[in-house]
Amino acid sequence: MELLIPECSYHIYNHSNGNDLLFKDAKNYFFFLDKYQKFISPVADTFVYCLMPNHFHLLVQIKKETDIILELSSKNAKRKYDMLETTSEKEKFVSLYVSKQFSNLFSSYTQAFNKVYNRMGSLFIKNFKRKRINDNNYFLKLIVYIHLNPVTHKFVQKPDDWKYSSYNTILSSKPTFVKREEVIELYGDVENFKFCHTNEIDS
Known about the structure:
The protein is α+β, with helices and mostly antiparallel strands. The chain has helices at 26-39, 65-72, 76-83, 87-117, 136-147, 149-152, 167-171, 180-187, 190-202; strands at residues 9-15, 44-51, 55-62, 129-133. Helix content is 51%, strand content 14%. Helix 1 packs antiparallel against helix 4 and helix 8 crosses helix 9 (190-202).
């Protein structure tokens, strides 16, 4: 399994286990996002996301190692980190810590979901997928791909009709954990951001 390296960008995605749904109700989506901010925002910056009934997509950049270490300061993990002697050991520890935060997110959400819906067992496929992004053009295409997921799967006709992605968040001015300004800057302006999404639908 590829390590999540500080200051690198990743497409992270996962699917429900079997035929289960990850989100059955509107409140499930918002609950997941609350959990997401708790576990992931301290270790990664989020550019875009899309939550679908049985899977999700995220585009994130892992934070600097120094920032992640600061996050360890109030945790038992800081003591373990300080006991490591070599740079490579410390780098690996930080990367594994980031992966563990994602695992904690999925585990925490599953426990709450199972309690509400009286179910047992894993909800997500065990090993979440991650793909490192090294190309700026691919990064831009991935933003559109993620936002158009509900259109591709025929849940809606336009990305702004789907409530559970970052598309409308990026177009709004409400407070958000999404890196709104950075995303818009990648496209030049809001109009080009919207054009690139609608142009892909029409093509």
